[in-house]
Amino acid sequence: MSPKNWLRVEELFHRALEHPPEARRAFLDEACGDDPGLRQQVELLLSNDFRAVSFLEKPAVEDATVTMAMQAGRQLGPYQVLSPLGIGGMGEVYRAHDSKLGRDVAIKTLPAEFARDSARLARFRREARALASLNHPNIGAIYGLEEAGGVECLVLELVEGETLCGPLPIAIALDRADQVAAALEAAHEKGIVHRDLKPANVKVTPEGRVKVLDFGLAKAIQGADPTRDLSGIVGGAHTLVGHIVGTPGYMSPEQARGQEVDQRADIWAFGCLLYELLTGKRVFQGDTVQDTIAAVLEREPDWKVLPTKTPGKVRELLRQCLEKESSRRPGSAPAIRRAILSAQIGSKPRLTAVGMAASFAIVAMGVTIYLKDSDRLTKSGFHGLSSFAQLTDQPGQEVYPSLSPDGKSFLYSSHASGKWDTYLQRVGGRNAINLTKVSAADNTQAVFSPNGEQIAFRSERDGGGIFVMGATGESVKRITDFGYNPSWSPDGTAIVCASATFNSPDVRLSFHSQLFSVNVMTAEKRSLTPNVEFAMQPAWSPNGRRIAYWGVGGAQWDIWTIPSSGGEAVRVTNDAAIDWDPVWSPDGASLYFASDRGGSMNLWRVPIDEETGRVRGEPEAVTTPSPYSGYITVSRAGKTMAYAQRTSTRNVFRVAFDPVREIAVGPEEPVTRGSLVANSPDISPDGETVVFTTQGGKKEDLFVVRTDGTGLRQLTDDAYRNRVPLWSPDGKQIAFYSNRSGKMEVWSINADGSGLRRLTNTKDGYVQYPSWSPDGQRLAYGIQNQTPYIMQLDRPWASQSLQQLPALGVPHAWFALSKWSPDGGKLAGWQVRTDGLFMGITIYSFGTGKYERLIDHGSYPRWLSDSRRLVFTDVGTGKLFLLDARTRKVHEILSVAPNEANFGAVARDDRWIYFGKTTLESDIWMANLN
């Protein structure tokens, strides 16, 4: 059979699959006409369920017909051939029995040219060994290689079930797609790309388990050379030996163009697959192979055929996966899974009071089915939780829930009124009561007293501190003039609090934070931890003898406990994960906490001795159906838990700026898209390239991208936190700070990803925010709770004569460095109070040796080219401002509210402003504790 004829067979085979079985005869009558040979080949493929076993759809070079020549009963090593299963262009597939292990397997014969090419066969065996390392429940396994009678064979897992096809109900389609994405995630982590993902290469077992077949075999058979020649597909002029092709309807544009392929080709194919699961139609198809490839390269999908109830997040995911430019697609399978999970959660209805009990039972049944159907989550699955229900659904953020002792109502913090307020709501109810609306200040972090009659909370009124009010907002009373995250003692007579706060657990706003115990009646306070320690979010144990908290040592986030009277701390966790938000179980036998140790931020618990703080076992997952969970609260009866579930998107944007009129002109333009959580952008001196870092999860990496969003490249790919990159004046290097040495230090890397080197080697402290001098000869860097230092870049660290800036001269505050002025005469930054609050834009002048605070709010200032004006962001309002350092005049130039703007950079010609744009959404959820 010629390549051209084989492609015609393939095309008709797939088109026949789009018809129900009863309609295929009529289709073939019309499509095959008077060519009985063509019809015979298509019918043979259909009868042998070729979709389930093929891994390359290309013509076998030496075989003119489909033969199925291997006879039943033939022995290949320990495998006895039982029956044929199907034919692939690069071999034939049989069911066989493994006499050693007593199981049936699939045997894939390999083309005869392998036996004649020893180098190619050796290369294939090396690749096959790598593929055999894929041990995942959603990937069809490779058991081994066999050779008998001159026949080379692959021994594969025999997967029973039906091949994947649509249309499916949205919930089932998303579940199937998530399992496919889990397979991609496992393979991509090992550097293996499928290259021919399509519904025909995916099976669903009778138990509902998805199995992706033939992972990476395209590369294994054809070799590592990424180049392709599609002339054999389009014109039929070549035999296709030695060239890798995908299936035209699912191959990515870069495959169709013969360009290099990476994991984003699989993400494109995943988008095609998900579209087909939802619609039952191929996203790209034509009457001929040439037409199909043209559709892939030139046409947009028909979004109108998606089911009307398709969630918006799924539609956006499809658009991202099917971006023609590969750099605009999601960068990883985990990003796809987070989007799917977010859509699954977001599609759940909000529960009313009447339906709460029944819905709990229904959801519990659903969770049981879900666990039977998939073990894609952590090993412990939903251990300890059931009956998930959403309690709030307002736009924006609802965080810091606190369940009443009886579990019938809850408190939470929300910014719905334009400031942070404390709300009271009945579980299952819809009418939230604003308990702090009479206050013009922010009020947050509210917690019920043990008897439910009082509420302790943090308020910024009258200078800030811990306050107490009645259960419905009456009789407000100040307890302290400091403190955050209050926690009641079991008898309700005292409160423990931390002296510093945080916005996100992975970003430190302060270097020191002590724990204090405060008597509610007398306001007498007592220090529990030394000033040199960093302690956050304390939680009193049920018997009152110990207090749990989280802290940061070097660059490690861990959970600790101490005696409630103060004393030696006992470590609970000790690893690279971010562990925070500890909460005791009501019986004191466990500590619940939030952690990213499983990949995403979710809930865990560890058995503990409440008397001594000694850990009695390993942490185990208490997994919620959420990509990010935290802010835990447990009812006093121990039957229910509430938590905040957060979703976040962050991308780099830019806006044109007129430096004469001092206004933003034109719309905001996205530079990055997708779910990388892009942060801290900086623009290269030539104005062509943006560097940024990803944030969140267990690792934070540096990326560069052209200003039009193309050419995305990853500069670092490791387990470290690489933050706040900044271009050197000549555009050849990028400075950033990272914990890759065990604590935060300044590093540099070349613009092409080479030349990674450490620049600082401090004895102590948390180094951050490097800034190049305009001539590139010096580097300033900050240290939390200290004044910045300046080093000479032409000297090794051992011979440095460091220049430390003078003290800020403001009690309990320090100068956070941002950027060196273009004229070299000043440093811009902002003042930070030791409890983490920002106190205003400040500049340091080398000429006077003094600091000058220009305004009482803002952060991350960047200079315009005149070294006089600065652009800065006001965290929390989502606004960018322009400030004249000479006149101190300030005015708003851009508002991205209700989103958060994370400011980044001003182009050297002042014509573009770059910033990170974040959209945060968080809701309160409840679950039953088993």
In terms of quaternary structure, the protein is single chain
The DSSP helix count reads 14
Q: How many strands, which pairing sense, and closed or not: the largest β-sheet?
A: 6 strands, antiparallel
Q: Averaging pLDDT over every residue, what do you get?
A: 82
Distance between the termini: 62 Å
Low-pLDDT windows of residues = 48-69, 223-245, 348-383
The CATH class of the largest domain is identified as Mainly Alpha
Summarize, please.
This protein has 14 helices and 55 strands.
What does this structure look like?
Helix content is 17%, strand content 35%. The strands form 13 sheets. It has a 6-stranded antiparallel β-sheet with strand order 1-2-3-4-6-5. With 930 residues, it is an alpha+beta fold. It starts with a helix and ends with a strand. It has 3 domains: 296 residues, Transferase(Phosphotransferase) domain 1 (Transferase(Phosphotransferase), domain 1); 210 residues, Neuraminidase; 274 residues, TolB, C-terminal domain (Neuraminidase). A hairpin with a 5-residue loop joins strand 38 and strand 39. It has 14 helices and 55 strands. About 9% of the residues have low confidence. The protein is globular and about 95 Å long.
Question: What distinguishing features does this structure have?
Answer:
14 helices; 6-stranded antiparallel sheet; Neuraminidase; single chain; Transferase(Phosphotransferase), domain 1; 3 domains; alpha+beta; 930 residues
Question: Strands, helices and their partners?
Answer:
Layout lengths: L2 H15 L6 H9 L3 H12 L27 E2 L2 E10 L2 E8 L4 E7 L2 H5 L1 H15 L9 E7 L2 E7 L4 E2 L6 H20 L12 E3 L5 E3 L4 H6 L8 H4 L18 H4 L6 H17 L9 H10 L13 H10 L11 H14 L9 H18 L11 E6 L7 E6 L5 E6 L6 E6 L6 E2 L8 E6 L5 E6 L5 E6 L6 E2 L5 E5 L5 E5 L16 E5 L5 E3 L8 E5 L5 E8 L2 E8 L6 E2 L7 E6 L5 E6 L6 E6 L12 E2 L7 E6 L5 E19 L4 E8 L7 E6 L5 E6 L7 E5 L6 E2 L7 E6 L5 E6 L6 E6 L6 E2 L8 E6 L5 E6 L5 E4 L10 E2 L8 E8 L5 E8 L4 E8 L4 E4 L5 E5 L5 E6 L4 E6 L5 E6 L4 E7 L5 E18 L1
Antiparallel strand pairs: 1-2, 2-3, 3-4, 4-6, 5-6, 7-8, 8-9, 10-55, 11-12, 12-13, 13-14, 15-16, 16-17, 17-18, 19-20, 20-21, 21-22, 23-24, 24-25, 25-26, 27-28, 28-29, 29-30, 31-32, 32-33, 32-55, 34-35, 35-36, 36-37, 38-39, 39-40, 40-41, 42-43, 43-44, 44-45, 46-47, 47-48, 48-49, 50-51, 51-52, ...
